[in-house]
Amino acid sequence: MNATDLSYTPALELGKLYRAKKLSPVEVTDTALARIERLNPKLNAYLTVTADHARELARAAEARFARGEGRGALDGIPYSIKDLEPTAGIRTTYGSKFFEHNVPAEDGAVASRLRGSGGILLGKTNTPHFGYKDMCDNLIGPPQWRDAEAAARQLGVRIQRLEIRTRDDLRRAFQAAVKARADAVVPLADPLMTVLTRDILELAARYRLPTMMENREQVEAGALLAYHADRDDAYRRAASYVDRILNGAKPGDLPVEQPTSFALVINLKTAKALGLTIPPTVLLQADAVIE
């Protein structure tokens, strides 16, 4: 059985193969970990990967099956847990910068039952800040900053990273940005930044710094502009996935899609207050202009 087949073999079938000694939990776990290592840098599906722990659990499961002492249907089956569930001895962030280094002493109820089943924990999967929405953007994983750095290099722009955990950090960050002669501020998408929107815009106005933010609502509140994925379109595309799955399509056969519809929103009132002139060619590309 090749790596792709193993990745999509149902759990009950894996259990039968284990008991027949035709397949090993170690082999399945190594295949899953190799797939995570290959795809996670692009997908950012895992915030924490527990490779060493998983291999240790896999060897223990293999020994149980060799003795004919399998624990049940989930014994030796690799699984992952959303990073909203506490896991003893394993980082649990809740998708929040506040809990970036949090390591619980005890399992949550779900984690405890899975651990007792003999299943093999591969790691903790991504989540938005405390699971508050459907998109897994947070400040824990690297993609937002990594993508910003890549874009800056391509454009020949120097960017400065300023971490924010509290309202006081925000004030200090703006002071540091002014000291470094920053030309603009771009808060990365995160619930904390959403909560601090009013503070960000007040400080931006005080220090006369243009701001590029996450959504139209923030531009209406005073940000200079936003360029963002069209969420209505994303919801429609998600609904088409649900429809295909309910009509018999295998989830593993469906492609991973990136957003294709984006919106540019510009606040001309803010531009005027900052003494900026937005080129007509840019205005013509805007999906909405707030005057």
Model description:
Helix 3 packs antiparallel against helix 4 and helix 7 (167-179) runs parallel beside helix 9 (197-207). The protein has two domains: 3-131, no CATH class; 149-248 and 257-290, Rossmann fold. The strands form two sheets. The chain has a four-stranded mixed beta sheet. The chain has a three-stranded mixed beta sheet with strand order 1-3-2, with helices on both faces. It is α/β, with parallel strands linked by helices. The model has no long low-confidence stretch (mean pLDDT 90). It is built from 13 helices and seven strands. Helices cover 46% and strands 11% of the residues. It has helices at residues 3-7, 11-19, 25-43, 51-66, 109-117, 143-155, 167-179, 191-195, 197-207, 216-220, 231-246, 268-273, 280-285; strands at 46-49, 78-82, 120-125, 212-213, 225-229, 262-267, 288-290.
Helix content: 40-55%
Which fold does the CATH topology of the largest domain refer to? Answer: Rossmann fold
In the CATH hierarchy, the architecture of the largest domain is 3-Layer(aba) Sandwich
Broad CATH class of the largest domain? Alpha Beta
The structural domain count equals 2
**SS-derived structural category:** alpha/beta
Shape: elongated
Major sheet, described briefly? 4 strands, mixed
Overall mean confidence score, pLDDT: 90
* Beta-strand percentage range: 5-15%
Task: State the separation between the terminal residues, measured CA to CA.
Answer: 62 Å
What is the element string, with H for helices and E for strands? HHHEHEHEHHHHEHEHEHHE
Oligomer: single chain
Gyration radius, rounded:
24 Å
CATH superfamily of the largest domain: Response regulator
Would you report the number of β strands? 7
Number of helical regions? 13
Uncertain segments: none
